[in-house]
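chain below, 72 aa
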Amino acid sequence: MTFAKKKLTFSQKPLVPLVLSSKKENMECLVGLVKEGKLKTVIDSKHPLSKAEEAWAKRIDGHATGKIITEL
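prediction:
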């Protein structure tokens, strides 16, 4: 199984699935924090879809300091 995970993710890092269900009150709290400026998303870089492979490599290498965006 470990080999399959590495093969699918092209990484030595473990793949940990995460499933969340959003509750209305939690989402309202997050929206409130964003509106108040208390919660911000840090964007590391933006890549066009044609450079998605580079974006993925940066994510896998662990060199990102924020979110990596692939633009369509």
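The two ends are 33 Å apart (CA to CA). Residues 24-35 form the longest helix (12 residues).
thats it, cya
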